[in-house]
Specification:
This protein is mainly beta and 242 residues long. The chain folds into 2 domains: 1-36; 40-241, YmcC-like fold (Beta Barrel). It has 2 helices and 12 strands, in the order ααββββββββββββ. The chain is globular.
């Protein structure tokens, strides 16, 4: 009789242990099946946000230099994320419609259509169908990469030179930005330089492009007096979601 009771207790305990084991295993499998979202701020994804309806407006100052004189043009560009599609590589590619106007009193006119892709390791922007690797993730100071790796323009060294820095453009302060230097080739007679600043949760906040030739005659050599070329500045005016 005692032996029979002992067997029943042992059997009950075994069944209970078995149920606990499978319940624990089921909970583990359920937790493993949940998708863990990456930390976009920590990895730097949010320096290049892509979401339908997002927009950025920039004020552009363009200075053109010739031997005779120099001229300055100002206008505005608005870039809107309007749609997305799955490209041939299976990536989510976003369509960027770009509009242009001379000043705030004019209506926007379509200027061009670009696109962009953000993968787990790169932010790629297609400017007039030419791909450029704008950022590498995670964003790390002094990080170097070839921005022209996916096009035919030859190797171009991009470098993240300032990470997580506060900057102010106009009336807007951005507490967290990264600065990308996209070449800085300078000599006594020429300068070719480009830099871009990305703000966390916003995207491109500022860009400067310099491609000029300096006067090289004997009285002016080394003084940095521009003879010809162009200097462009893109400064953010507003951003948001429509």
């Amino acid at each position: 009789m005692t032996s029979l009771i002992h067997k029943k207790i042992t059997s009950s305990l075994s069944n209970y242990t078995f149920k606990i084991f499978w319940l624990g295993l089921l909970l583990i499998l359920q937790n493993c099946s949940k998708t863990i979202e990456p930390d976009g701020d920590r990895l730097g994804y949010n320096y290049f946000p892509l979401e339908i309806g997002r927009f950025i407006t920039w004020e552009i100052e363009e200075k053109n230099y010739t031997i005779l004189d120099s001229t300055t043009n100002t206008y505005q560009i608005k870039e809107v994320v309007t749609d997305s599609f799955t490209n041939l590589s299976g990536q989510h590619q976003y369509i960027l419609e770009r509009y242009k106007r001379t000043n705030i009193n004019q209506s926007w006119q379509i200027d061009s259509v670009w696109s962009a892709v953000r993968t787990g390791s790169q932010a790629i922007k297609y400017e007039n169908n030419t791909p450029y690797i704008k950022l590498i993730f995670p964003t790390v100071n002094n990080q170097i990469w070839n921005g022209n790796a996916y096009n035919n323009y030859g190797e171009k060294t991009y470098k993240l030179v300032e990470n997580k820095r506060s900057r102010k453009y106009g009336e807007i302060t951005f507490p967290n930005t990264v600065k990308i230097l996209m070449g800085n080739d300078s000599s006594l007679v020429t300068q070719v330089k480009r830099e871009e600043v990305y703000a966390l949760g916003v995207g491109l906040a500022y860009m400067k492009r310099i491609n000029v030739r300096f006067k090289s005659d004997e009285p002016n050599l080394g003084k940095g007096i521009i003879e010809s070329g162009k200097i462009e500045k893109f400064t953010i005016l507003e951003y948001g979601k429509e």
